C-alpha cells in the first residue's frame, strides 16, 4: 500500500506527493518515527517548536506523530 508522509512545522504543512510503498500500517508507523528522528538530527531544536508528520493513504488520514519542543527553563 502507498503511504504519504506530510510534514508540518507548526506553520505550514508540506504534502508528500510521491508516497512510499509499505506492506502495512505498522511499517508506516515505524517509518514515521524514523523520519522524525532524521529530521531532529538535521534541525536546531531552538529553531522549531513543533514538528509533525501526518500519515495518510489513498483512503485518507491514518495517524499523526508529533514532537513539541520547549527550550528554556520549565516551570513545575
Give a structural overview:
- The chain is of the alpha+beta class.
- It has one domain (2-68).
- 24% of the residues lie in helices and 37% in strands.
- It has one helix at 25-42; strands at 2-8, 13-14, 20-21, 50-57, 60-68.
- The radius of gyration is 14 Å and the shape is elongated.
- The N and C termini lie far apart (45 Å).
- The model has no long low-confidence stretch (mean pLDDT 87).
Tally of individual domains: 1
Would you tell me the structural class of the helices and strands? alpha+beta
Beta fraction: 35-45%
The whole-number mean of residue pLDDT values reads 87
**Rg estimate, integer Å:** 14 Å
The oligomeric status of these chains comes to single chain
Shape: elongated
The total count of helices amounts to: 1
How is the main sheet built?
5 strands, antiparallel
Question: How far is the first residue's CA from the last residue's CA?
Answer: 45 Å
Salient structural properties:
alpha+beta; 1 helix; 76 residues; elongated
Task: Provide a brief overview of the structure.
This protein has 76 residues and is α+β, with helices and mostly antiparallel strands. It contains 1 helix and 5 strands.
Amino acid at each position: 500500500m502507498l503511504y504519504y508522509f506530510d510534514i508540518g512545522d507548526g506553520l505550514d504543512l508540506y504534502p508528500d506527493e510521491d508516497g512510499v510503498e509499505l506492506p502495512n500500517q505498522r511499517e508506516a508507523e515505524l517509518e514515521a518515527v524514523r523520519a522524525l528522528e532524521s529530521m531532529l538530527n538535521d534541525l536546531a531544536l531552538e529553531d522549531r517548536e513543533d514538528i509533525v508528520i501526518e500519515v495518510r493513504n489513498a483512503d485518507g488520514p491514518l495517524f499523526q506523530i508529533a514532537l513539541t519542543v520547549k527550550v528554556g527553563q520549565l516551570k513545575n
